[in-house]
Design goal:
alpha+beta; 3-stranded antiparallel beta sheet; 112 residues; 29% strand; 2 domains
Length: 112
């Protein structure tokens, strides 16, 4: 609701996120968040496949909210798990994720 509070009349609010369509928990979390903000948004989705090297895989997951930081006690175990996942699932040194990008867009004048 911060968007509505600080936006001028007719401000366009846009939310976008990537999700893995094979993992339902991610999209459910985003749908809950967007349903609290938008009433009648324009919604678009498009494929956004991404390939990761091992180093980029670790950086990608290290940048997410809620993951252990280097100073946290669970950090080393988390990084070990991410490395093991990459090593198990990569093909020729690349790990491919078929992500989808979802975009919500609506003018604030349309909000209830």
């Amino acid at each position: 609701m911060e968007c509505i509070r600080i936006g001028k009349p007719n401000t366009v609010v846009i939310t976008l996120f990537n999700y893995n369509p094979n993992e339902s928990h991610g999209i459910l979390r985003y749908n809950k968040s967007t349903s609290a903000l938008y009433r009648n948004p324009i919604i678009r989705e498009f494929p956004n496949p991404i390939q990761f090297t091992r180093a980029n895989w670790i950086l990608y997951f290290s940048s997410m909210a809620g993951v252990p930081q280097p100073s946290d006690s669970g950090y080393e175990a988390y990084i070990t798990e991410m490395k093991e996942e990459f090593d198990r699932d990569n093909v020729d040194g690349l790990l491919h994720l078929d992500l989808v990008t979802k975009i919500y867009c609506e003018r604030t004048s349309e909000f209830v």
